Every structure is written in C-alpha cells, then in structure tokens.
C-alpha cells in the first residue's frame, strides 16, 4: 500500500494541476497578507475559500483522478495486490498531495509574514487543519461516487451535486428548519446541525477563533461554551474523522465487491 | 461728589472679603500640618496652599467658601477609611491634588471628592487613584470639573464605583478629564444642562458614559474607547452629541452607543469604529443622525422596536459586517444622502447621487432579527447567495427602508 501511496503521490506532485493549485494558494495568501496587512481579515477570506473551494476541488479532482487512472488501476488489479490496498493507497496519495499544496501554498506566505511570532498562529492552525480535513473528507466521498458510477458524466454530476448539497443546500434547509421552528429553543438543534456537516463545522470552528464571533451573541456564547471545552474539541475532531472513515470504509467495501 | 464717595465706598466694601482673605500655607513640617486643621481655622474666602507631601486624612469637610490649592501635587491618602473631601459650601475650589485610597463600602458611596448642594465649585487638575467613587456631585449647580485624571482599579461591577457621577445636578461643565478603569466613566442621573467636553473615558468596566433621565445635555469631542459596554444614553430628551469618537467597544453584548427612549436629540459628526454594534437604538424618535462615520463595526446601526421619525442623512457607512439591522416590517424612518461602501449602483447623470436606491438591510441580518439562532450561518455560502438574490429582487426586507439618494462618493464635511 505504501508503494501505491508513494506512486500516486509523486505522480500527482509532478502534475500541472498540483502546481496550479499550489500556486493559486501561494498567490492568494501573498496578496491577502502583503497587500492588505490585516491578518484577521485575511483569515476570514481564506475561510471562505476553505469552505467553498477546498471541497469543490477535492471532489472534482478525486473523481477526475479515478476516471483518468482507470487503465493503471486495471493493471494494478491484475497484480497479486489487495484491492483495498490499491484504492486506499490511491486515496491517500491524492488527498495527501492536495493537502500538501494547501498547507505549503498558505503556509509559506504566512511564515514569511511572521505568523509564528504572532498570537494568530492558532487561528491559522485551525484554518489549515479544517482545510486538510475537508480535503480528505471530500476526496473520500469523490472516490465513493467514482467507484459506484461507471459513467463519467454521471459521476461528475453526482460529485458536483454532493458538493452543492453539503456546501449550500444543507444550510438552506437548516435555515428553513430554524424559521419553521422559531418558537422553540433552537440552540441545541443548531449545534447538532452544525456538527453534522463538515463544511459548517469547519466554518464555525474558524469563526469562533476570530473577533467576529462577538456578532453571534447568545447563540455564539452557547457554541463557544461547547467548542471551548476539551469534550467539544474531541467531539468535533471525532466528527471530522468519522466523515473521513465512513466513506473510506464504504469505498473499500465497494472495491472488494466490484466487478472490474 | 457724595455719589462719588458712595461709589468708592461701594467698591471698597465689595472688595472687603477679597482684601481680608488670607493665605494659609501648610506642609508636613509646618505649624499647621493637616488640611482638616487648616480648613477649620480658615475664614471664608481664604486660600489654603498645600505644599508637596503626603497627608493621611479623610472626612475633610469644607463648610465655607475656600480655595484649596496643592503645590507640587501633594498626596491625600485616605487609607481606605472612607470619603476624603466633602464640599458643603458654595464657591469652593480644589486643585492640584493627588487623592488616593478611598474606602470601599457596600452601603455608602464613598467618593474622593463629593460636592453636596453647592454652587460655583471648581475641581481641577487633580489625580485620583485607587478609588471607589471619584468625583460625586450631589444636587450641585453651576460648577466646573476640569482636567482631572481618574484611574481606578475596578475588577467587579458590584464593588466598584463611578469616575464622575452627577446626581440631580445642573449647569455643570465637565471638561478635559480622563477616566480609566472604573465602573462607569461618567454617570449622569436626573442632571440637566451639563456640558461634557474633551474627556477621555477608556477601559471602564461598564459604560464610558451613562445617562439616565437627564435632559438638555451636550457632549462633544469626547473619546470613548474599549469600555465594557460602550456608552448608554437612556430616557432623556434634547441631547446633543457631536464630534465624539466611539471606538473598540467589542464583545457579545457591547456597543458603541446605546440609545433607549431618547427623543429630539442630535447625533452629528461622531465616529464609530470597531464596535460590535455602532449604535443600538430602542424607542428613539425625532432624532437626527447626520455626518457620522460608521467604520468596521459588526452592525453599524441596530434599530429595535418603536423608532419613529428619525432621520439618517449624509453619514458614511464603511465596511461594516452589517450596515443596518431593523426589526419589524414597517419603517417610519428616513434615510438619504448617505454613503454606503456596499453600494454598487451607477450614476448616469453624474450628479454624485446614485440612480438606484440602496437597501441597507441585508436579508441575512433581517433573518437573524427574526431568528437569532440563524446567526450560526454567518458567512456561509448559502447566506451569501441569499443576500445577493435579495439585493437583485427584494422580497423580504421592509419595503420602504431604503436610501433613495445614496452618495457615490464618501461624504465630506
């Protein structure tokens, strides 16, 4: 498996897309920091990128990689290798290289800016951790979709739909439910609804670290109380890892049964 | 001739108190070594000069018109035993002292300097430290509080006092004072015709300035920064607020300026920067907000219920998370000629006024007024889309609430 991870990783690390992705973050980070000089504002903008672009790129890239490397995968399948090892290897290769682009692309300008001497280091750490977690989550979801659909168009369609569902539609339904049940106390519900969507969870984790959380008033205080405790921290990281592990487990199951 | 003598006699007689006024000097090694003693011995209209040194005294009661002047900032140390100076007479001046260690009590409001039912007092150039209440004016009139520095060490609201407190006082001038780290920087209750100018009220636990039931007051060119909850003006009429700076009042229940039940007042040329809420208004009517700057606030203006016939014109709204939050569907307030940094309209005839009206209430801020919990969706993709679509085709936001003549360029004055 390690060999496959290494192969996929270096294959992708050499590809144009990874460079483009890396350069995009490098440019974005540099422009935001050095032309704006507002660290907190930069982190908010990056958070917006984090919750829209990172999932989108991870999904599309995951699906694309799977379809494009079909022949190579078939070749590997002919070898005496475990199927789960092949797909898990590919998965970690791609998620790892995307995460590396993200971490390096944002990390270099921030390090150059002198982040390590400022108090914002933890906010930035949360930003990177959630970014990496979202990459892993959406890549694993993408692999699931790609493995379940032989038809490329269908696969891409489902992938985009999934992204739309988690990044946009979920919040819409959430808001409708809040409006529908506004006579009831909704703090607990909104807490649960937030924790169950990785995109919302990442957003809230970053927002709570920033000054802007003061805008959230009473609800924000409830959230802060929950996420501020170690139990809240453990629970939210558990939730994020569950979002990685469950699709991963399903992916391995499909891969085992599938007729190639 | 007779008239002339009479005239001279008159002038002479008028000068008598001045001519016979004496100067007493006190210092730690002098014959008179305490202020209490000097005050007892002094005749009305005397001047007491206090040389540098430390005077451990409290309950200095002044019952006759006197000028007590400190030279080289002498220290009066109350040793936490209670009130330090109480003025119970007209025409008293106290200046140039460092007054420290006022006693704390849960039953009596001990103050460093208290003025009771007196007129024409002047309290100037004093430094007050480690205090409970600083300067407490009780039914005092026509006096001046000038250039004092008040530095408290308040930790909890329940056992700390206010910097400058006015209670049933009127025609008082409060100018050039700096108040830090107390409960309320300046507190007014039932006090009318007060002029508050050029003061700095910083890092206070609760409010920088707090008004209750006080009418016809003016406050200009003050700085209110980093106070627990900002400035509160409540239940008052005819207030003029001009050229003040409200800055960095940031926290979940904090605001630059809280207005509650205020009528017929003017808010002009103030700057609101980096507050969670620039102005929080409840039950205000016939107020005019002109030429104010609202920059980088969470909410620039939050209008709760029962606000009627207010005018907001020629203000600048710059880069606030929300420009306006408004509860209710009916709008009775008027917005015009403001500059909104979020305005993307055009101006074909180049008269400096946008051709498309601006709607300052975003759908999301409207939603959060209805459902406070919806704020958890702050800065999510969905709410961004929602605001965008509402901007193009307004459906939910209050219909009349818009600026029909938004400025294309920032208002200048």
UniProtKB/TrEMBL annotation, chain A:
It comes from the Bacteria. Keywords: Membrane, Transmembrane, Transmembrane helix. The chain crosses the membrane at residues 20-36, 42-65, 91-115, 121-147, 159-181, 226-249. This is ABC transporter permease. It comes from Sinomicrobium pectinilyticum. The lineage of its organism: Bacteria, Pseudomonadati, Bacteroidota, Flavobacteriia, Flavobacteriales.
From TrEMBL, chain B:
It comes from the Bacteria. Residues 50-189, 196-356 form the Carbohydrate-binding/sugar hydrolysis domain. InterPro entries: Carb-bd_sugar_hydrolysis-dom, NosD_copper_fam, NosD_dom, Para_beta_helix_rpt-2, PbH1, Pectin_lyas_fold, Pectin_lyase_fold/virulence, SCF-Subunits/Alg-Epimerases. Residues 1-21 form the signal peptide. Keywords: Repeat, Signal, Ubl conjugation pathway. The keyword Repeat applies. It holds the Pfam family NosD. Gene3D superfamilies: Single-stranded right-handed beta-helix, Pectin lyase-like. NCBIfam families: NosD_copper_fam, para_beta_helix. PANTHER family: F-BOX ONLY PROTEIN (PTHR22990), F-BOX ONLY PROTEIN 10 (PTHR22990:SF15). This is Nitrous oxide reductase family maturation protein NosD. The gene is nosD.
């Amino acid at each position: 498996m390690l060999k496959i991870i290494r192969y996929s990783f270096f294959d992708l690390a050499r590809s144009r897309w990874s460079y483009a992705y890396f350069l995009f973050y490098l440019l974005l980070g540099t422009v935001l920091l050095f032309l704006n000089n507002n660290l907190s504002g930069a982190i908010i903008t990056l958070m917006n990128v984090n919750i829209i672009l990172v999932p989108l790129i991870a999904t599309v890239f995951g699906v694309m990689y799977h379809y494009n490397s079909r022949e190579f995968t078939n070749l590997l399948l002919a070898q005496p290798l475990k199927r789960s090892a092949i797909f898990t290897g590919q998965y970690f290769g791609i998620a790892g290289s995307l995460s590396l682009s993200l971490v390096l692309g944002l990390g270099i300008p921030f390090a150059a800016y002198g982040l390590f001497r400022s108090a914002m280091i933890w906010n930035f750490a949360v930003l990177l951790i959630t970014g990496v977690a979202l990459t892993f989550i959406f890549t694993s979801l993408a692999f699931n979709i790609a493995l379940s659909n032989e038809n490329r168009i269908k696969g891409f369609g489902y992938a985009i739909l999934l992204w739309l569902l988690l990044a946009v539609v979920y919040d819409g339904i959430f808001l409708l439910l809040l409006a529908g049940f506004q006579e009831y106390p909704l703090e607990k519900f909104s807490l649960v609804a937030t924790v169950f969507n990785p995109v919302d969870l990442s957003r809230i984790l970053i927002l709570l670290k920033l000054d802007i959380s003061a805008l959230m008033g009473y609800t924000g205080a409830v959230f802060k109380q929950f996420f501020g405790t170690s139990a809240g921290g453990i629970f939210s990281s558990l939730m994020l890892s569950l979002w990685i592990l469950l699709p991963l487990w399903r992916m391995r199951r499909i891969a085992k049964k599938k007729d190639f | 001739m007779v008239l002339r003598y009479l005239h001279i006699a008159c002038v002479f007689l008028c000068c008598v108190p001045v001519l016979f006024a004496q100067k007493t000097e006190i210092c730690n090694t002098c014959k008179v070594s305490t202020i209490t003693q000097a005050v007892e011995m002094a005749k009305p209209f005397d001047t007491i000069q206090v040389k540098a040194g430390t005077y451990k005294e409290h309950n200095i009661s002044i019952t006759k018109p006197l000028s007590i002047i400190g030279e080289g900032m002498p220290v009066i140390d109350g040793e936490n035993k209670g009130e330090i100076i109480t003025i119970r007479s007209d025409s008293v001046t106290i200046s140039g002292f460092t007054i420290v260690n006022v006693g704390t009590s849960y039953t009596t409001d001990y103050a460093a300097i208290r003025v009771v039912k007196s007129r024409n007092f002047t309290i100037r150039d004093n430094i007050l430290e480690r205090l409970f209440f600083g300067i407490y004016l009780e039914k005092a009139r026509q006096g001046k509080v000038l250039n004092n520095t008040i530095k408290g060490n308040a930790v909890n609201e329940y056992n700390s006092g206010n910097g400058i407190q006015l209670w049933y006082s009127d025609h008082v001038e409060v100018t050039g004072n700096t108040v830090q780290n107390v409960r309320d920087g300046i507190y007014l209750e039932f006090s009318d015709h007060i002029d508050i100018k050029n003061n700095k009220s910083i890092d206070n636990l609760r409010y920088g300035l707090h008004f209750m039931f006080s009418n016809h007051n003016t406050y200009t060119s003050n700085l209110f920064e980093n106070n627990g909850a900002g400035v509160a003006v409540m239940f008052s009429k005819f207030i003029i607020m001009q050229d003040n700076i409200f800055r960095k009042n940031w926290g979940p229940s904090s605001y630059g300026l809280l207005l509650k039940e205020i009528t017929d007042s003017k808010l002009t040329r103030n700057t609101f920067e980096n507050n969670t809420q620039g102005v929080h208004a409840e039950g205000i009517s016939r107020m005019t907000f002109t030429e104010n700057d609202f920059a980088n606030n969470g909410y620039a203006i939050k209008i709760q219920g029962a606000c009627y016939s207010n005018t907001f014109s020629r203000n600048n709204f710059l880069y606030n998370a929300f420009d306006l939050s408004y509860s209710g569907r009916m709008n009775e307030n008027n917005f015009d000629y403001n500059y909104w940094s979020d305005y993307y309209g055009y101006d074909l005839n180049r008269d400096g006024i946008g051709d498309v009206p601006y709607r300052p209430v975003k759908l999301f801020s409207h939603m959060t007024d209805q459902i406070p919990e919806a704020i958890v969706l702050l800065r999510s993709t969905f709410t961004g889309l929602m605001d965008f679509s509402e901007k193009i085709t307004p459906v939910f936001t209050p219909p009349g609430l818009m600026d029909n003549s938004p400025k294309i360029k920032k208002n200048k004055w």
